């Protein structure tokens, strides 16, 4: 690399010209002739690795043979304390006899004083100055002389005195002597006074090298990388390209760093050209796109060994103090002040400032922070493990003393897998850092903070509280480990080590895991505390828990019985978190209890009010550890309030939010709820997919009693699709015994009943449906929107031949709180129980209700029964119309068994293509649209698709952000174009994906 670096210089033409003129002037004697001494010295100045040495060599190459006689010396930090080190090099290079100078102990009695370090203020003995002058005079007698010293800032003071004396005496003696030096930044000390005198008091030429511009980087790339040069812009005056800009951003225009990146780039190209397995680095050479030469056009170029080595060279050239400062900057990552950095690495503040300035100018740093993360890592790795641990511990303490943010302090404590310092403030700072990390979605970092805080906490109560918080965050990022995190807290609850409010919040976790006895014991303990010491906040938390028990874990509440109801007072003041907790518990409890039960929650509120309150809470609340339970309750409120479209909209939004927060636990539960929403819309394939994803995302022990939700959705979806063996396998899976004492168990019992009914086990199905009804009545949540158990009983009775009982339960369902969807179910069953001549009217009502409420599976079943009824009544053509529509809808929603039973051997007509409801549907579900359908505009197609899939005009307008009038106009044009007259004649094949996602 060094050879290439020396061979390619860009943006240095002006400096080369001025310096070659200086050297040529020396050769012609013009320097000696200048009365004021002008031109006797030339200085090349610039940041670390800016190309000073390369420029010096280039000038000497250009003037070789025609210039003055050159004698050189090269300095280094290690030789700075050696007196006369530079003078020795110059004399040796001039091929003089060194023992003519009194520089060695054998030269005389005073030589020993001269060969040992001496204070800068002590002048060099006159005899040495004269001897050096005479020695050079002999050389100058043969012609002009150019003395070249590279990195003059490292020259020893004694040699500098000799050079200054020689230059002052040269014109008087007629000798033609000039001095050409390169000088880097002064770091770690004050430059000798004699150096300042030599370089600045004597008039001369000063050349300052700066970093390369973006255009200069482009020229360098073109010179060394033909591919990069081939992509230069058409305008010949500019070499600025995206690649040049990205290289410049990574290097600050430092030539050494630019060359390092180019070397790494060329190495990658050679590896890629050699093909797979060309070398150990080939696996890391690219990203497998096959076009790696374009990789840097979109961002920071690949930083390999050459670039990192070049950066470390820049750091090391700032000296030992500079390396320590750079290591401190790398560890702190830009945190802390200059004073703190100086204390951390134990150097003076002015040294820190010098190093920072030098590295900023060198392009290693930008605004005192490393430009490239790889360089920062490499600098940190230059420390031993022991040194890194010591520095990080010290950095944490200093940052804490300086009042730094908890996240900044925690970053030091958690680095390098070290143990935290034995300081009382550490657990508190780590706990605060965990909360701050969660605000920026750094959940894994928050978990690490809490783990360390717990490990170094001395107070047992505080340690258990930290464990409780840790368990809450573990559920979000690693739900499979959640039960193990909770178990140690059971003893803390029994011993009363947790504050009562935190105990109440822990109860939700105990209930979810099915630890009902432990949860009940914890609740009793908190109730006793509340009786002894009334507390408004604790009463609010306990009241919200009571509502949650009543709506989800009613069996626990039955055993307790004495949990206070939530108090409501005019002067009640709740925090935002408490308000969300209490509101969500009230709305879910209210919508499930209904009627008289709702009045227990709020006497003036009905189901619609609960749904609106839930939606307001969803609209104004972010998904966090403190709110996710409440938001789930609000989502379920909309679901049980029979608002499937609204509930689906909010569920999808929460799923996106959970994914953004990298929360697999939240995502799994939300998918389970979302699967039930799809199931109630008759989207069987989507329901199956969501339920399977939910079960795959969490292991069974992570679900606890909540496993009833995804399992029930999947069992019911599989049953409706006709996958009875798969449903049976799901029912064979072990579930927690206490699941059947929860609301989740009601869904499970109902799904099991549907499977039993579909597979001919009619008595078993009747038992499950009846058990559902008994529990729901006993728990005071006999709501058809929870599970329509009466319809299930009616179907089972009908299958057993008891038409009167079937009719009784169907009519009982119709007389109750049934919404349109459940009324459609009940009417279909009632029609089957009534004489044949009454069936078409009842089934037509069922079809209208199910279509309006968008339950496609049940709509297909009702249309099937309607077609069969017309056929039995002697109207086969009318029967065929309804049967064909039932076939299309059954195929579109994924009810494979049903559509195969309708037309086991007859393929669908070309004019009635079946739609693929979701990407997961069978590939043969899609057919090319007819010419009439193709004539629809995009807007008409979207409106027609939504209408065909059961959305009302108002819902379509809300989804597409258009007015109801516009929806009606679109539908009128659609009817005319595809030659239909009724909404129910719209083909379900119209862009089913649009209907689901619009």
UniProtKB/TrEMBL annotation:
Residues 274-286, 912-932 have a biased composition (Low complexity). GO terms for biological process: regulation of DNA-templated transcription. It comes from Streptomyces aizunensis. It comes from the Bacteria. Pfam families: AAA_16, GerE. CDD domains: LuxR_C_like. This is Transcriptional regulator. The keyword Transcription regulation applies. Residues 101-121, 274-301, 900-934 are annotated as: Disordered. The keyword Amino-acid biosynthesis does not apply. Residues 929-994 form the HTH luxR-type domain. Keywords: DNA-binding, Transcription, Transcription regulation. GO terms for molecular function: DNA binding.
């Amino acid at each position: 690399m060094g050879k290439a670096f020396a061979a390619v210089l860009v943006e240095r033409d002006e400096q080369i010209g001025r310096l070659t003129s200086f050297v040529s002037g020396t050769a012609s004697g013009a320097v000696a002739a200048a009365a004021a001494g002008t031109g006797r010295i030339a200085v090349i100045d610039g940041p670390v690795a800016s190309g000073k040495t390369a420029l010096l060599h280039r000038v000497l190459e250009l003037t070789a043979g025609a210039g003055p006689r050159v004698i050189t010396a090269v300095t280094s930090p290690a030789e700075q304390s050696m007196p006369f080190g530079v003078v020795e090099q110059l004399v040796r290079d001039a091929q003089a006899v060194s023992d003519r100078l009194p520089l060695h102990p054998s030269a005389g009695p005073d030589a020993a004083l001269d060969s040992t370090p001496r204070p800068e203020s002590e002048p060099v003995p006159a005899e040495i100055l004269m001897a050096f002058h005479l020695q050079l005079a002999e050389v100058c007698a043969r012609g002009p002389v150019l003395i070249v010293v590279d990195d003059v800032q490292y020259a020893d003071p004694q040699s500098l005195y000799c050079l200054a004396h020689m230059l002052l005496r040269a014109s008087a003696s007629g000798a033609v002597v000039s001095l050409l030096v390169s000088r880097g930044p002064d770091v770690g000390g004050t430059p000798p006074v004699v150096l300042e005198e030599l370089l600045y008091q004597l008039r001369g030429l000063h050349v300052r090298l700066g970093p390369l511009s973006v255009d200069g980087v482009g020229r360098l790339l073109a010179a060394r990388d033909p591919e990069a040069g081939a992509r230069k812009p058409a305008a010949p005056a500019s070499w600025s390209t995206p690649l040049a800009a990205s290289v410049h951003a990574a290097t600050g225009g430092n030539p050494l760093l630019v060359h390092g990146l180019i070397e790494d780039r060329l190495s990658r190209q050679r590896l890629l050209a050699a093909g797979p397995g060309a070398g150990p680095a080939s696996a890391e050479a690219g990203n497998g796109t096959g076009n790696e030469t374009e990789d840097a056009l979109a961002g920071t170029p690949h930083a390999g060994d050459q670039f990192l080595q070049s950066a470390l060279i820049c750091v090391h050239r700032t000296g030992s103090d500079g390396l320590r400062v750079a290591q401190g900057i790398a560890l702190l990552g830009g945190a802390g002040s200059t004073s703190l950095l100086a204390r951390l690495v134990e150097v003076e503040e002015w040294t820190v400032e010098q190093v920072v300035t030098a590295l900023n100018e060198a392009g290693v740093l930008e605004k005192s922070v490393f430009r490239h993360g790889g360089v920062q890592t490499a600098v940190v790795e230059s420390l031993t493990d022991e040194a890194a641990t010591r520095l990080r511990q010290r950095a944490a303490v200093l940052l804490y003393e300086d009042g730094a943010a908890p996240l900044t302090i925690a970053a030091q404590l958690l680095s390098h897998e070290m143990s935290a310092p034995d300081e009382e403030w550490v657990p508190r700072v780590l706990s605060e850092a965990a909360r701050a990390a969660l605000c920026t979605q750094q959940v894994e970092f928050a978990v690490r903070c809490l783990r360390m805080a717990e490990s170094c906490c001395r107070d047992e109560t505080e340690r258990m509280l930290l464990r409780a918080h840790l368990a809450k965050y573990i559920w979000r990022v690693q739900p499979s480990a959640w039960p193990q995190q909770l178990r140690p807290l059971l003893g803390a609850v029994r011993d009363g080590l947790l504050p009562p409010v935190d105990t109440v919040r822990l109860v939700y976790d105990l209930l979810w895991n099915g630890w009902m006895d432990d949860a009940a014991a914890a609740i009793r303990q908190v109730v006793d505390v509340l009786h002894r010491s009334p507390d408004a906040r604790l009463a609010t938390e306990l009241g919200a828990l009571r509502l949650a028990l009543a709506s989800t874990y009613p069996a626990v509440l039955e055993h307790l019985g004495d949990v206070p109801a939530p108090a409501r007072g005019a002067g009640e003041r709740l925090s935002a978190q408490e308000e969300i907790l209490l509101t969500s518990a009230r709305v879910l409890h209210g919508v499930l209890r209904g009627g008289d039960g709702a009045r227990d929650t709020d006497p003036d509120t009905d189901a619609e009010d609960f749904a609106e309150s839930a939606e307001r809470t969803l609209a104004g609340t972010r998904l966090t550890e403190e709110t996710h339970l409440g938001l789930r309750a609000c989502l379920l409120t909309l679901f049980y309030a029979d608002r499937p479209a609204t509930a689906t909209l909010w569920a999808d939004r929460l799923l996106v939010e959970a994914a953004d927060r990298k929360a697999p636990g939240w995502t799994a539960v939300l998918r389970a709820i979302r699967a039930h929403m799809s199931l109630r819309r008759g989207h069987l394939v989507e329901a199956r997919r969501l339920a399977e994803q939910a079960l795959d995302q969490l292991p069974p022990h992570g679900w606890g009693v909540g496993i009833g939700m995804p399992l029930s959705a999947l069992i019911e979806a599989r049953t409706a699709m006709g996958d009875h063996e798969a449903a049976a396998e799901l029912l064979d899976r072990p579930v927690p015994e206490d699941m059947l004492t929860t609301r989740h168990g009601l869904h499970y019992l109902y799904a099991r009943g549907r499977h039993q009914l579909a597979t001919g086990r009619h008595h078993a199905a009747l038992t499950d449906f009846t058990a559902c009804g008994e529990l729901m009545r006993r728990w005071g949540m006999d709501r058809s929107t929870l599970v329509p158990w009466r319809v299930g009983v009616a179907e089972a009775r009908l299958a057993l031949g008891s038409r009167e009982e079937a009719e009784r339960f169907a009519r009982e369902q119709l007389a109750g709180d049934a919404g349109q969807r459940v009324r459609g179910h009940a009417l279909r069953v009632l029609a089957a129980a009534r004489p044949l001549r009454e069936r078409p009217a009842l089934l037509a009502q069922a079809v209208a209700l199910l279509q309006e409420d968008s339950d496609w599976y049940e709509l297909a079943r009702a249309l099937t029964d309607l077609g069969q009824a017309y056929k039995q009544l002697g109207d086969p053509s009318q029967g065929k119309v309804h049967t064909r529509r039932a076939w299309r809808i059954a195929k579109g929603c994924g009810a494979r068994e049903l559509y195969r039973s309708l037309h086991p051997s007859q393929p669908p007509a070309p004019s009635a293509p079946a739609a693929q409801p979701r990407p997961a549907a069978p590939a043969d579900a899609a057919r090319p649209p007819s010419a009439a359908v193709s004539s629809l505009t995009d807007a008409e197609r979207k409106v027609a698709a939504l209408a065909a899939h059961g959305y009302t005009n108002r819902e379509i307008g809300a989804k597409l952000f258009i007015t109801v009038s516009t929806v009606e106009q679109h539908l009128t044009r659609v009817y005319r174009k595809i030659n239909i007259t009724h909404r129910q004649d719209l083909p379900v094949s119209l862009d089913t994906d649009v209907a689901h996602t619009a």
